[in-house]
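Pipeline run #58 for the internal structure catalog. This entry was flagged by the ingest filter as a single-chain record with no existing model, so it goes straight to prediction. Upstream metadata was stripped on purpose; only the residue string is passed forward. Reviewer on rotation: M.T. Logging verbosity set to normal.
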Amino acid sequence: MFNLRSTEVGGVNAQIVTSVTLVEALVDHFLDEFIGKSYVLTTSFGRQLVQRNANSFHQSWDERNLWLDKGFGIALSQFSEAKSLTTIVEVRNAIVHGNNQLTDRQAKSLFKVLELKKRLSLDLQSELQGRVIVLKANAGQLAIEIAANFVVSLDEAVAKVLED
């Protein structure tokens, strides 16, 4: 991820979408690996439980956080990069689902909108104008760095769990 540069991925939006997608894929991979190596699949009940809930494991960041934390002791929300990652996830969602504008779901909570406005400035040196996210030219590269730093923390947490 550290080698992903603006010349390799077209435009700021694409850099943000790609960064978040890669992090999600890695988190989902680790979650699937932990489930596969756990004892839960050794019983009929456990297999049914996993099968019936398989879609929810990857449905949202809240679900990923819940399953990794409660199931395997990896609390993604405790990573120092968690708030910055949440920022780029929210921006990705606005890009993909709102054409660079906050979706109705994102704009529902004034508190969350104000927090995102603050985090956009801190994390991506960008701004929120009404519901429109205005990304600066370097926002994509900043998103790549946030994602890469998060992945390093994730890798360290996974390695620690595997050691125990």
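catalog note: The first strand starts at residue 127 and ends at 129.
catalog note: Helices lie at 11-37, 44-57, 61-72, 82-98, 104-107, 110-124, 139-163.
status: ready for reviewer M.T.
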